[in-house]
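Issue: copy button drops trailing tokens. Both records pasted manually instead:
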Amino acid sequence: MLFGQSKFHRDGMIGEIFVFLTHTLPLFGKKVAVKIIGLKTFDRMVFLQNYCFFRRNPFLQIFYLGIVLSCLGVVLYCAFPILPLHHKIGCWTTIGIVFFVFYKASTSDPGVITPDNIEQFRYNYRYDGVIYRKKFCKTCKIVRPARSKHCGICNKCVSRFDHHCPWINTCVGANNLKWFLSFLLSTGLMCFYCSIGVVEIYYKTVMKFSLYKLPLPITFQYLVVYRGPGLMGLLLFTFLAGCAVWLFLLYHCYLIARNKTTNEGFKYSVAKEMHQYNITVLKEKPKRKKCCIC
């Protein structure tokens, strides 16, 4: 799914698997579903699917808050009674910062362009003639400024459009990029801070009962039983989630250093492939032979 459309895998087995999973299999599933549940019920399911995946909705926001609150519950039940005072203060401070940044990232204006405020965005960037040209948006009734894009999910044009983020239920654009990066940073710090706190608890337990003298598997089993499986699950989850969030944050820092957005990176790669394809076609095009009359 991740590499099926890449230039390297497009014509190989992975590309064929990608087409099967994204085109052939859904069409077959649609025919079977229509025969089993009927066309009207199927259309309602499609409407629900479109709302969940292609319209603004708070599902992932609720899911994110549920994850954070669940992890907080595990901390309060398993770890909070044995944490030192500075970690207790740090825990509540971190949670407060995460919730504040999440609220700002979810509610800040990404840079929505309307006929009333288009003048403040019109000359911010220049058209490059490659992926950005003057184009009229029929929905918003404006000539889109350079580096802007109409988001099909929000149904609005956004200045310096990066991508639509379902975790904050809004687009990431020129005006709220700082809050989106702060959201990633605060979430990544929260995950690693939680992991470090659990590791510190385990370290003190090992030193207190001299568990380092025992074989590693027995020490691991003792920690899981003595401190509870919830704490071990919290450690694994926060560490893996933190790694994913930090990688995503580093990727966006790389894009900022290159003065690109996620949308532009994708568009430039497509434009580059098309350019290379056109050059190949022109090179392989047979030259017409001149007719000579003897």
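Record 2 (pasted manually too):
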Amino acid sequence: AIRLCNTEIHVFQMYENCLKKFYSSQNVEILLYLARAHFVCGKMEETRRILIHARHIAPQDNLILFNLSYVLRHLATATLRDEKSGLEDVVSAVRNLELAQRFFTMLSKATERQKYDLNHALAEAQQCTDLLSQAQYHVARARKLDDEQRAIRMQQEKAKQELESKRKEEEDARNREAAEKQQAMLAQREVYREKAKNILIFTEEPDLPKAPKGRRKKDDEDKFSSAEMSSDPEKDGTIFTILFQSLFNRRKWGNFISVV
């Protein structure tokens, strides 16, 4: 089958080149050959397109109409037999089937000699009628399938919206929590700053009067000097006695008593 289709591809190119080069795509006979090549490879949509083009060129040619009706019936049958076909495709197939049935009925009643078999046309018309009798079942099945798919899409969309809403709520909650933590940290930092500011404030204590140490030392030195310079022994003994008593009292009471 693949080898046949590969061969037909070369035939397609040959027919199309011939149409463009010699006939400007207006030769009905070559168009029929090209349509037949596509039909053999199972390319029904392309076959239908070519036959419609040929029908526009030669609307009086009943052979083109017969082939077009045959292709429409094949397309409609394949669509109706496919249980996964959507409602739109099934409705379109039923319309094509009605069109093919009408064409075959008309072609089967032709009085002049034709290039096709009249009995064949009548059989095709009857087959279209049989398929149309089951059209309501196929339409109902396709409508049910379409409703189920629509319900599934709505459910998926609802789940998606709920998930998105939940994600947004969680994100908002995280943002609020982060903002509250930041606010708490700022408040705690402000408390620490106030505490640190209070620690750095020192109260000044009043200065206590201090004894002039240097003065006492100088007075002592003066007294010692006076003692050394004194020539009176009795007076010198008195001075040493006074100094000794002064030193004793200082060690005992912690204060130096000046002697005048």
